[in-house]
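Example 3.2
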Amino acid sequence: MIPGSNIRYIDFHTHKAGSGDDAIAIMNLMAGEEVPSVFPRNTLFSAGIHPWQLTSDNPDRLKTELLLTAAHPHVVLIGEAGFDRLRGASSEIQYQSFIYQAGIAAEMEKPMVIHCVKGWEELRRAYRQMKPARPWVIHGFRGRRQLAASLAEEGFWFSLGREGITAEILGEVSNDRILLETDMSDEPVAEVYRWFAEVAGCGDDEAVSIMKRNFNNLFNYSV
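Structure, written as tokens:
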């Protein structure tokens, strides 16, 4: 990716291609999906085995498909990978799939983007087992402040949508561990930024500077 000179916003996790000329969008791909042959200039990708994809008989196929996609130079994150106690295969299948993806992320020196629904103990267990050198970013976090505080203390980063941006969460998580996202929403990422600025008590330009700095630190980029 060669970002334009007018980049203002970063949509860390989205399922839509492109967020305008003034934004970088990281579009999520599930295992089996390929990077499109043509995509907007400021688009990057994540690729992973989502826990909802998993069944008792498809992990090997999904692992092979993920490897093919993850090697693309515009894939900068592994995931979304993780744990979901409400949907998907058994906890053991989810765990083994996650550890496999964490191994790919470590080998490729890429951060991970995490999906987690009521699977926090499994996520912590995996973190202790893998001891990742690159950050693991929990996307769409909307948990309680005590959970946010404990995860932040362990080293996790957070990607927040509008519903996750609360005074309680921002009070527990350092601004240098936060990114912003639209996920499945049709709301422009600029509106998520404006809401963050309002709740954080900072100006719009400061919110932009915070997220650019975090993005650069995460990926060793300069935007």
